[in-house]
Amino acid sequence: MNRVLITGVAGMIGSHLLDALLEKNTYDVIGIDDLSYGKLANINHHVKSPNFKFYRVNVSDFETLKILTRDVDTIVHLAAVKKVGEADSSMDTLKVNERGTQNILEAARMWGCKVFFASTSDVYGMSPDLPFREDGDLLLGPSMIKRWSYSVSKLYSEQMAFAYYKDYGVPIVIVRYFGGFSPRSSFSWSGGHIPIFVDAILNDREVPIHGDGSQSRSMAYVDDLITGSVLAMENEKAIGEIFNLGNDEEMTVLDSAKLIHEVAETGKELKLKFVPMEEVFGKKYKDILRRRPDLSKAKRFLGYEPKTNMREAIKKIIDLRREELKSSSNRIS
Fold it and tell me: What is the dihedral sign for C-alpha 139, 190, 89, 272?
C-alpha cells in the first residue's frame, strides 16, 4: 500500500482526490484540514474507511506534521489561503502559504517523502504569451496591489520546492491548476465564478459580472483535474517538473453566464449585474484578461487529456445543485 498525506483534504480538490485514491485500493491516506475552507461533509463518506484517517490540523503546526508524515511516501500539499478581494487582508495568504509549504518540504526532507505541490495559474499573471506554457515568462502587476499576494505566495513556494529538490534531493512535482469546479465547490468567490453563477441563476438572482465580462477563463470539471493529479503523482518522470492541469476550452465570463442560463432552462430571464472592477479590486488593479493553458507538456509526459467540456460540466453541477436545493427545501418544510 502507498501511504499518502493530503493537506486540505476536505476542500474541493482534496476530497475528490481522496475519493480517487481510496477507490484504487492501493492507498492508505492520512488527511489533514483545519476546516477554515474545507467541509467535513466532503469527506464524511470515508470516515469509517480502514484506509483513511482524518486529523484537524493546520499546516502551520510543524510539530504535528512531523509526526503525521513520518511513515508517508508522498505528501500532497493542497492547503492554501486564497485572497479574493482588495478589501481582504493579505497576511494569512502570505504567511500560511509560505510557512505551510516550508513545513511540508522540511518534513519531506526529514523522512524522505515525495512532495506533490499544488500551485496555480495565477502565477502567470497578465502574461501576454498565450496559451500559458510552464517555461514561459510570468508577468505580475504592481506590488502594492494586494490582489497579487496569492500569486506571489504560490510562486515563492514553487521556488522553495525547487530549492529543496536541487539542494536537498527532495523529489517534488508541481502542478499549476487552472480554474476548476464541482458540486463541492465553495459557492462564494473563493470557488470561482461558475458556482456563483449557477447558484444565482437557479435561485433567480442577479448574476454578478466583474467589469464587462469580456475577460476569458479556461475552466475544468474536477474529474479532469483529479485524473491529471493522479497521473502526475504516480509518474516518476514527473519528478522535478511543473505541469499545467485543467481544460484549454476558453470562454468569456459573460458567455459562461449565458451558457449556464441556457443549460439550466429555468424559464426565467437572465439577470445580469455588471460590477465595476474598481469596486472589487481597487482603482489600480488590472484584471487578467485571458487565461488559457498550454497542456502539451502534460499530454506528452503524463498522457493527460481533459474529457469533460464546459457544457457537460455545467450540466453536472446544475443537476447536483438542484438536488441539494431541493433536499434543503424539504428539510425546512
Answer: positive
Are the beta carbons of 245 and 176 closer than 8 angstroms?
Answer: yes
Closest CA to 257 of 193, 332, 187: 193
Predicted confidence (pLDDT) at residue 238 exceeds the cutoff of 90: yes
Q: Which amino acid is at 78?
A: L
User: Which three cell numbers mark 217?
Assistant: 477563463
Q: How many residues does the chain have?
A: 333
Backbone angles phi, psi at 118, to 5 degrees: -90, 110
For 55-92, the pLDDT digits (tens) are 999 999 999 999 999 999 999 999 999 866 667 788 99
DSSP 172: E
**C-alpha cell read off for 147:** 490582489
Angle of helix 253-264 relative to helix 193-202, nearest 10 degrees, comes to 40
Q: Which CATH class is domain 2-182+218-248+290-307?
A: alpha beta
CB atoms within 10 A of CB 72: 21
Q: Which DSSP string corresponds to 54-90? A: EE---TT-HHHHHHHTTT-SEEEE-------STTS-S
Give me the phi and psi of 63, to 5 degrees please: -60, -40
Quick: pLDDT tens for 142-184.
Answer: 888 888 999 999 999 999 999 999 999 999 999 999 999 999 9
**What is the DSSP code (8-state) at residue 293?**
B
All three cell numbers of 237:
518522470
**How many alpha carbons fall within 13 Å on the CB side of residue 100?**
26
Tell me the one-letter amino acid at 49.
Answer: S
More confident residue, 87 or 99: 99
Element (DSSP H or E) covering residue 323: helix 310-332
Per-residue buried b or exposed e for 211-240, using 16+ beta carbons within 10 Å of the residue's own CB = bebebbbbbbbbbbbbbbbbbbbebeebee
